[in-house]
Write a structure and sequence with these properties.
With 510 residues, this protein is an alpha+beta fold. It has 18 helices and 18 strands. It is 35% helix and 19% strand. The protein binds flavin-adenine dinucleotide. Flavin-adenine dinucleotide (FAD) binds next to strand 3, helix 7 and strand 10.
Length: 510
């Protein structure tokens, strides 16, 4: 970190927020604030209110803290560039003075990715929100990174197309955030994850212009022009550069859709049916299997595992897919057909989170993925690991994304502080549950994340369960592309020896 970072602007971590790192920058050097004000005018904001708002994203533990008036980590200012050139100018100014820059889209990340642990500038992309082009010949759309999901989808529908990417957060998340976190939508079985849709993009880098401060990966259907370095930016969580434009593959808006509800005696037999369907090429847009706890919670049925399927396409395709599913899921019972409509209506409702937090509970979700041979054992191992933590009250799961080789498991857990209801006790329960779940996932052969990413909450797990060589590779890329380490410092890829730039989390050792 540069000399500016070591100056008198530092404040103690607690006054800047619960996870603020040592070295946190509370105020910008004058040349940076003056320069940004001149560049962006009203789109440079440094009011206390705006800075406190940008101290958190949707990381659920920050909502617990907010219930007691505490925040994660307060930035010094917010910059809202309105063009790719302005993004480059913000990066250039901050680089010259060693000021941290944390890119944010909708701040809907659930792992603390957009929390500015070292303070500095939050670079918000939401003014970059246009659909630039629909190429009907090549079936792709070029967009700016700060466009929100529902707006993009509505714009594409006007042209007769769909992106087919429907994360539960579609109204509060952006294309840039999707790419930077490797998002998965609810209809990923048909349309794929965001990384399957990205054909090309531009990235602004925190390097001097003369060394090359932009990487442009042109949109192409496939390439063998050397290693696929573009993929290094998928899941890069704002640590390598700022995505300023992206071209995404689109599909024809579906003619029709229909659904099907089934029940299985238990979760494991439902998983087996999902596997057989995926391997037979029967992939309805949504195929979701709930364990008995979640079946009871969502649909009011007991002692069974419910499966909800939604097929999209021509009416013939839809009818054929649902018929094939019924055949493959031999032995399954017909579920209540109203469950499909219920899921469609309530699928983006997360009000239960706030209600639980108001009741003093700690709640979060954890998504992992494993090969089919390990899916059932991963389910059992993670559930048990969480339930063994003192204070744990509930751990349940559903499977929401299936592949021919394996599937995603999405857990929800609830608990209370191990020794009372103060924030420190809640933090201890929360960190222990996460640590146990990550250890169990790794031991069971699963990846530690399927689509939420690393952020702060998985940083320890990432550093523990990825190989040294993989982390060295990421750090080497970061050193080259962000030599001053100003981009989202304290997250994945930060220099290991910079102890003072690590977030003040977890509160207990893993
Ligand atoms: C209620 C709820 C439901 C959710 N459901 C889903 C779901 O179904 N599927 C799913 O995948 N996720 C889901 N999420 C998680 C979240 O929406 C995704 O991780 C999403 O991709 C984040 O996008 P964002 O625009 O909000 O990014 P932010 O939270 O603002 O940023 C996330 C990370 O991306 C980086 N970033 C953002 N924009 C750029 C850019 N232009 N260039 C470089 N880096 C950038 C940031 O620096 C940060 O590290 C959900 C979250 C919530 C709160």
């Amino acid at each position: 970190m540069s000399t500016a970072m070591q100056g008198s602007n530092r404040v103690s971590p607690r006054s800047a927020g619960r996870v603020a790192a040592r070295g946190h920058l509370a105020a910008l050097p004058d040349p940076v604030s003056d320069g940004l004000r001149q560049l962006l005018r009203d789109d440079f904001v440094a009011s206390d209110e705006a800075c406190r708002q940008h101290a958190n994203d949707w990381w659920p533990i920050t909502k617990v803290w907010a219930s007691e008036g505490e925040v994660a980590s307060i930035p010094a200012a917010i910059a809202r560039p309105g063009s790719a050139d302005e993004v480059r100018s913000v990066l250039d100014l901050c680089r010259q003075h060693g000021v941290p820059v944390v890119t944010s889209g909708g701040r809907s990340g659930v792992c603390g990715q957009a929390v500015p642990v070292l303070g500095g500038v939050v670079l918000e992309t939401t003014r970059l929100n246009r659909l630039l082009e629909v190429d009907e010949t090549s079936m792709c759309a070029t967009v700016e990174p700060g466009i929100f999901g529902h707006k993009l989808e509505a714009d594409l529908r006007r042209h007769g197309y769909t992106l087919g990417h429907y994360p539960q957060s579609i109204e509060i998340s952006t294309v840039g955030g999707w790419i930077a976190c490797r998002s998965a939508g609810q209809l990923s079985n048909k349309y794929g994850k965001i990384e399957d849709m990205v054909l090309g993009f531009d990235v602004a880098l925190a390097r001097p212009e003369e060394q090359g401060d932009v990487i442009s990966f042109p949109a192409i259907p496939a390439t063998a022009a050397g290693p696929d370095l573009r993929r290094a930016f998928l899941g890069s969580e704002g640590v390598l550069g700022v995505i300023t434009q992206a071209t995404l593959a689109i599909s024809h808006a579906p003619e029709s859709s229909d659904g099907l509800a089934l029940t299985f005696n238990n979760f494991e037999s439902g998983l087996d049916a999902m596997r057989r369907a995926s391997q037979a090429g029967v992939s309805p847009a949504a195929m979701r299997l709930y364990d008995p706890d979640e079946t009871a919670r969502h649909f009011g049925a007991s002692d069974c595992a419910a499966m909800i399927c939604v097929a999209e396409g021509s009416s013939d395709e839809v009818a054929a897919q649902l018929k094939d599913l019924r055949r493959i899921a031999l032995g399954a019972e017909q579920g209540d057909p109203r469950w499909v409509a219920h899921w469609l209506e309530t699928r983006n409702d997360v009000s239960a989170l706030d209600i639980a937090i108001e009741r003093g509970l700690v709640v979060d979700t954890i998504e992992v993925a494993a090969l089919w041979r390990d899916v059932a054992s991963t389910y059992g191992a993670i559930r048990q690991a969480i339930l063994e933590i003192p204070g744990a009250m509930m751990a349940s799961a559903h499977s929401s994304h299936a592949y021919s080789s394996g599937a995603c498991l999405y857990f929800t857990f609830v608990g209370v502080g191990d020794a009372g209801s103060d924030l420190d006790a809640k933090d201890r329960f929360y960190a222990s549950a996460w640590s146990a779940a990550m250890e169990a996932a790794h031991a069971a052969g699963a990846t530690i994340s399927h689509h939420h990413g690393i952020g702060i909450v998985r940083l320890n797990a990432f550093n523990t369960y990825t190989s040294q060589a993989e982390r060295d590779m990421l750090r080497a890329l970061k050193r080259e592309l962000d030599p001053m380490n100003i981009l989202n410092p304290g997250k994945i890829g930060s220099p290991e020896d910079e102890e003072r730039s690590s977030p003040n989390w977890p509160p207990i050792s893993d």
